[in-house]
């Protein structure tokens, strides 16, 4: 949650109040609960009017999360609105649906034994990553305690991760060893990974669909490097795969890539249902290879149909709607449907990559190849591009036509590299992409005749930034 500072509660000046236009007598305070009741319809209008100030979600090419829902999903969300996901006893069929999805995902991610894999739904990938990370941490602690070894200095080795792993490390007192990117290498490679690992390493987290570029990390290679390390030193290092985006993409569109439970070192996988799982917001999952990979001391017990059900979660109450909608999508689309929807997104991303490259001044960093990453395009300005604008200026200007195309610098050691990224999701097809290209060309023309004399920087367009930093 964003943390908000509170505002002055006493409002005497006009600016501090909101008005309903049809009745100027009707005055509402902005930062204080109004004293009196109001007409629901009038308030609804006010709230809706205020929301017009938000950007248009369908033109938001920054976010990874779903912005398109069909009518049936809306119907399901309504049914699920007042069902609390935690009340397994009161809503046993909802619990059964969650259980079925976990099995479907264990199967999709090539669990060696569906009967002994275990998992849960979550509010999103962040919660799922926290749970995967915590289980990893506790496995390491248990092993160290059994060997009578020090447990005071745990560290976690990762590539360029999403902010949730920084949170995980800070909240639980674990040293984050995030391998720095360098110009031209924007992921974790086996050699640099090995340099950071020691006996205090609780595990390695790699990402299937990096936030910064959209690329998949070379998970199979990393896993083999860890096998070699074990042969040489006896250090047995577990992997958690943050497959927030890729977990619902690679199985359908790049089934040959080995990133999942086919690699024995992979003990847990997390993914966002509300990204490429095509569920509405509020839906994620984490699955462990085997019930033994989830330490018992992390599990709590709730009543379930008069029986006992184990739960592992950070949240307690949570709406069931997004999970039921996920179930609907899995049943409705099936394997072929997911493949079709996602392949269309890849096609659009690749079209954009080609068109952007043709402009001559941009270098494509990731081109939306389904065997290499998610349906996204990432580019930078060529070093020798003779232009008067930078990518922050460019992003800002595109926003005047409603397009949110974030520009940002890469993390440390590559932070002199500024990139721009488009994420293609369901609902953003070739026709919209060609409209975007027209606006991109129009913007370049504009900059030809209007030279930029004072550049914007990262802070100026911070609201456009969606890198999870
Ligand atoms: C989006 C994302 C997250 C966080 O997921 P939420 O579902 O937004 O909580 C974590 N890791 C990666 C790689 C992501 O892309």
Automatic annotation (TrEMBL):
<dbReference type="GO" id="GO:0004058">
    <property type="term" value="F:aromatic-L-amino-acid decarboxylase activity"/>
</dbReference>
<comment type="function">
    <text>Converts glutamate to gamma-aminobutyrate (GABA), consuming one intracellular proton in the reaction. The gad system helps to maintain a near-neutral intracellular pH when cells are exposed to extremely acidic conditions. The ability to survive transit through the acidic conditions of the stomach is essential for successful colonization of the mammalian host by commensal and pathogenic bacteria.</text>
</comment>
<dbReference type="GO" id="GO:0005829">
    <property type="term" value="C:cytosol"/>
</dbReference>
<dbReference type="InterPro" id="IPR015421">
    <property type="entry name" value="PyrdxlP-dep_Trfase_major"/>
</dbReference>
<dbReference type="GO" id="GO:0004351">
    <property type="term" value="F:glutamate decarboxylase activity"/>
</dbReference>
<dbReference type="InterPro" id="IPR010107">
    <property type="entry name" value="Glutamate_decarboxylase"/>
</dbReference>
<dbReference type="InterPro" id="IPR021115">
    <property type="entry name" value="Pyridoxal-P_BS"/>
</dbReference>
<dbReference type="GO" id="GO:0006538">
    <property type="term" value="P:L-glutamate catabolic process"/>
</dbReference>
<dbReference type="InterPro" id="IPR015424">
    <property type="entry name" value="PyrdxlP-dep_Trfase"/>
</dbReference>
<comment type="similarity">
    <text>Belongs to the group II decarboxylase family.</text>
</comment>
<dbReference type="GO" id="GO:0030170">
    <property type="term" value="F:pyridoxal phosphate binding"/>
</dbReference>
<protein>
    <recommendedName>
        <fullName>Glutamate decarboxylase</fullName>
        <ecNumber>4.1.1.15</ecNumber>
    </recommendedName>
</protein>
<keyword id="KW-0456">Lyase</keyword>
<keyword id="KW-0210">Decarboxylase</keyword>
<dbReference type="Pfam" id="PF00282">
    <property type="entry name" value="Pyridoxal_deC"/>
</dbReference>
<dbReference type="InterPro" id="IPR002129">
    <property type="entry name" value="PyrdxlP-dep_de-COase"/>
</dbReference>
<feature type="modified residue" description="N6-(pyridoxal phosphate)lysine">
    <location>
        <position position="275"/>
    </location>
</feature>
<keyword id="KW-0663">Pyridoxal phosphate</keyword>
């Amino acid at each position: 949650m964003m943390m908000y500072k509170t505002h002055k509660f006493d409002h005497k000046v006009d600016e501090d109040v909101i008005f309903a236009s049809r009745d100027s007598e009707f005055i509402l305070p902005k930062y204080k609960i109004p004293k009196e009741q109001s007409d629901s319809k009038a308030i609804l209008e006010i709230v809706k009017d205020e929301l017009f100030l938000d950007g248009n979600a369908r033109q938001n090419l920054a976010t990874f999360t779903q912005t398109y829902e069909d009518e049936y999903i809306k119907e399901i969300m309504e049914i699920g609105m007042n069902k609390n996901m935690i009340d397994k006893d009161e809503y046993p069929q909802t619990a059964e649906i969650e259980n079925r999805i976990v099995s479907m995902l264990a199967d999709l991610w090539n669990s060696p034994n569906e009967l002994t894999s275990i998992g849960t739904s979550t509010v999103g990938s962040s919660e799922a990553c926290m749970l995967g990370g915590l289980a990893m941490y506790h496995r390491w602690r248990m092993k160290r305690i059994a060997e009578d070894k020090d447990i005071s200095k745990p560290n976690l080795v990762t590539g360029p991760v999403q902010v949730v792993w920084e949170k995980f490390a800070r909240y639980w007192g674990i040293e984050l060893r995030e391998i720095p990117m360098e110009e031209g290498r924007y992921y974790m490679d086996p050699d640099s990974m090995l340099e950071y690992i020691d006996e205090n390493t609780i595990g390695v987290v790699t990402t299937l669909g990096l936030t910064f570029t959209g690329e998949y990390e070379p998970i199979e290679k990393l896993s083999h490097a860890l096998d070699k390390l074990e042969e040489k030193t006896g250090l047995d290092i577990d992997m958690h795969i943050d497959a927030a985006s890729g977990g619902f993409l690679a199985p359908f569109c790049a089934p040959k890539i080995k990133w999942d439970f086919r690699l024995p070192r992979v003990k847990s996988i997390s993914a966002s249902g509300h990204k490429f799982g095509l569920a509405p917001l509020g839906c994620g999952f984490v699955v462990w290879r085997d019930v033994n990979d989830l330490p018992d001391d992390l599990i709590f017990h709730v009543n379930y149909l008069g029986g006992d059900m184990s739960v592992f979660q950070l949240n307690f109450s949570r709406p069931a709607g997004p999970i039921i909608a996920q179930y609907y999508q899995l049943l409705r689309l099936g394997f072929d449907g997911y493949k079709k929807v996602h392949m269309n997104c890849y096609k659009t991303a690749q079209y954009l990559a080609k068109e952007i490259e043709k402009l001559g001044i941009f270098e494509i960093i990731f081109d939306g190849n389904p065997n290499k990453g998610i349906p996204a395009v990432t580019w930078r300005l060529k070093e020798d591009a003779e232009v008067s604008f930078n990518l922050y200026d460019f992003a800002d200007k595109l926003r005047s036509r409603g397009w949110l195309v974030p520009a940002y610098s890469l993390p440390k050691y590559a932070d002199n590299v500024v990139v721009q990224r488009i994420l293609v999701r369901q609902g953003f097809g070739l026709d919209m992409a060609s409209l975007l290209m027209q606006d991109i060309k129009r913007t370049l023309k504009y900059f030809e005749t209007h030279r930029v004399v004072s550049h914007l920087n990262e802070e100026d367009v911070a609201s456009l930034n969606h890198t999870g930093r």
